[in-house]
Amino acid sequence: MNSILADGSPGKRSSDGERYPALSDRHGWVSYVFIAAGFLALVPILSTHRVTDFMIFCIFALSFDVLYGFMGRLSFGHILYLGTGAYAAGLFIRYVDKNPVAAILLGVAAAVATGMIIGPIVVRTTGACFALINLAFNQVGFFLVLSPLREFTNGEDGLGIHAAQIGFFNTSSPSVMFWFVFACLLAVFYLLRQLTRSPYGLMVRCINENESRVRFLGYNTFFYKWVTFVIASGVAGLAGTLTTLNYKYVNPNVMDVHSNVGVIFACLIGGAGNLYGALLGGVIYMIISNTLPRYIQSWEMFLGISLLLIVFKFRQGVWGYLGDLWSYYQRKREQGKS
Amino acid sequence: MIYTIMYGFTIGAILYFISIGLSLTFGTMRVINFAHTLIYTLGVYFLVTFMAALNGHIVLSGVLAVLCVIPVSYLIERFVIRKLYGQSVDYTFIATFAISLIGVDLIKRIWGVNPYPLSDPIGTYLTFFDFTFPVYRVLIIGIAIVLFFALEWFFRRSIIGKIVAASLDDEDGVRCLGVNVKKYFSIVFVLGSVLAALGGVLYAPISSIQPYMGHSILLLAFAVVIVGGMGNLRGTFVAAFALGMVMSVTARYWSQGAEVMVFIVMGVVLIFKPLDL
Amino acid sequence: MLKIDAINVSYGHAKVLHDVSLEIRQGEMGFIIGRNGAGKTTLLKSIIGLLTPWSGSILFQGQAVVGLSPERLSLAGIRYVGQEKKVFASLTVRENLEIAAYACQEPVEKAIDRITGFYPKMKKFLDTKAGLLSGGQRQILLVGRALVGTPKLLLIDEPTQGLAAIVIEDINDIMSDLKQQVSALIVEQNLAMVNRLADRVFVLKEGKIVSEIDDKSMMSDTRKLEDYV
Predict the structure, then answer these.
(1) Taking CB atoms and an 8 Å cutoff, what residues of chain B touch A133?
(2) Residue C220: its pLDDT value, please?
(3) In this complex, which of B159, B162, B179 lies closest to C71 when CB atoms are compared?
């Protein structure tokens, strides 16, 4: 297994968005402090509610990075799972029980279940097929909540969702929501980081590099891909449930196909494959999408142009760029010593 | 019921025009070109402009519109697809999607957001056993059939067609014989775009013209390519008409479900025939 | 004819060839032998441009060719026949040759005459789809295709792999006939063939050339060769 990842070529720069191995353990808990500090610092600049928004998107971006940066499959319909979680939680609160924790669990379960069912169909494909099949399923889901299930979902107009308070968990309070989402974000980050470093994570990365070889070694690659897909769906579902609770509202736009561009952009600009990039990219994208429409009218064109620029000139994203700067700096230091 | 079938064939024909380019590009370069349906949309808008300039002369406008997409398509192939397809399928996808975003925005700026109405240019009907069919739709179906045979001939007989067929089997092998496959892929790409524009131009009078018309068609065309097999022209022909029929029949009983049904069929096909890249 | 100087080739992060150097002179038939995974296919692919060495040089008739595309190298006179015996399956034998002929601007009849010259049985299969041919026939078609346009250097990867003994004899005969007409660098596991045809043998082990044998007596002793592998 190690020979596939061993670096035998000196002087080879990783340029085309190659996966960076996660920062080594020497950083450990320090990174969590940095992340926490980063988000907390944003609060006085924007409002609490906004930052909560950002964090929810970052959770979604993390789920996408698992699929794209880690497993190497670009999906153009990942928001389906966010929407599934959002609607499952919302409908539960509306029609069954106003307990928000139960709703969150149900939302995640619904997203996981959907991922488990769609997964086997989808993970057999790669590249363009994978991207568009997910898009098609996303479209179907969007259509479902818009039309046939209108009786329950109220179609385009959406539903207002008001959860009850459980103990100190009061969803109507911006600060409670902030801390809850904050905790979720750190927890998700921790779990995913452990996952990507585990033997399972190594296996998935090998599959990404050269699937046939892994299969020839006797491993059931299908299973690993499926599991990864389900994990990504589940985390996206979590982001969905949090969206519903945060906005107290759910409507079909929560799984609008066009919104997929946002998370793709986020992972690209942040840097795919190492989780930190997803966080960074998530914040960057949120800042852009919240401030830009005020100043530029056709901001979709802006998005398109920036995507082109990233693809041609800036594949490694901000995190990758920082990583390159760091290695450059280190090399200079070593040259200086000798 | 017979009208449902006719409608199904008409949609099938249009899907066929659009899917050929997608299937070929998929088969040869293994990329999804999101900008493919931008070309389709552009063709339609060019038609509108030419119609206005040439005082409603639809045939000439149509021909000019289709010809005008050639340079656009060539530029996209030369500067985006060619640079990326060897490297990464994902980036090509994102880049062509970006182009489609930019393109749709430009269309909105130049032509506005409001739908353009165009009417059936022929307007006459055929009567056949008590049923009346608009001639125009019959014409569309006819053109599709002619196109099918033309493409069959092209790929069986001409050297370009053979090179493309060989590349679908073993691209490296073709290169190692000294053939510059990139040039031929370009030709195929532009051909596919021209056909998509043709599809758009033919469909325009019986559909609604608005800047996002490309998006929904892309997914349907993609479903056709999946069901028919990538790079498989005969399969594309059959799949296009089959799915067109699915849409038409579904629309009759459940008007909004037409598109969704196509995706369900696609999903089912994928469960039993999980080939792909 | 061909001079390779200290090339290093990697697949992604994995380094496959380490400072490999070899030389083939005009009219020579060189063989590369070695265990599976030693890097033999990688070596051939690097010469034809399907892979690019990140250091070192390759000179073909005195011209540096690293970084050039397979198409250009093919037209310059290097032909490559891969290990997988892939033909253009959906085209007929004649059409397979047509494509090669088109690229070199040689009349297709000449290509057909050449292949039926060294393998008359091919006449029957000219209009059969290449995908229906047997392994041996495919190999012969591939060699015939590669010879279109009279190339100067042939690179062949395991021509006898997976073929029946009788067919291997046919291939051996064809290779013998070619010996004076064209230079070649052939990867082979079949040491009997190496015995018969080699002017020079290179032993590749774990990405390095560990020995080069041009002593005829050494080469004709199969056991001695086996020691090296």
Answers:
(1) 226, 266, 270
(2) 62
(3) B179
Residues facing C155 on adjacent strands:
C80, C185
Sign of CA dihedral A240, A241, A242, A244: positive
Residue keyed to tokens 């409002």: A47
Query: For residue A238, is it within any domain?
Result: yes
The subunits that touch chain C, with at least 3 C-beta pairs less than 8 Å apart, are A, B
Q: How many domains does chain C have?
A: 1
In a domain, A210, yes or no: yes
Q: Note whether B177 contacts C87, CB cutoff 8 Å.
A: no
Is residue A10 assigned to a domain?
no
In a domain, C33, yes or no: yes
Residues of chain C with pLDDT under 70: 215-229
The verdict on residue C161 lying in a domain is: yes
> Is B104 near chain A, with CB under 8 Å?
yes
Whichever domain contains C208, its CATH number is: 3.40.50.300
Q: Domain span at residue C191? A: 2-10+24-228
| CB–CB contact A136 B108 (8 Å) | no
- Per CATH, the number for B2-272 is 1.10.3470
Q: CA-CA distances (angstroms) from residue C63 to A35, A175, A292, C24, C155? A: 56, 71, 55, 14, 18
Instruction: Flag the least confident range among A82-91, A226-235, C125-134.
Output: C125-134
DSSP state of C15: E
The whole-angstrom distance between C142's CA and the closest CA on chain B is 10
- CA C118 to chain B, closest CA, distance in angstroms equals 20
Rg of the Cα atoms in chain C: 17
Start-to-end C-alpha separation, chain B: 38
Domain extent, residue A80, equals 28-337
**Inside any domain, residue C18:** no
C17 domain residue, yes or no: no
Residues A301-317 have a mean pLDDT of: 81
What stretches in chain B show pLDDT beneath 50?
A: 277
pTM for the model stands at 0.78
Interface A-B, measured as beta-carbon pairs within 8 A, has a size of 118
Q: Where are the alpha helices (DSSP H) in chain A?
A: 2-5, 29-45, 48-65, 79-95, 100-122, 127-146, 150-153, 174-197, 199-209, 211-216, 221-247, 260-270, 276-295, 299-313, 317-337
Q: What is the mean pLDDT of chain A?
A: 81
Average confidence (pLDDT) over A234-252: 91
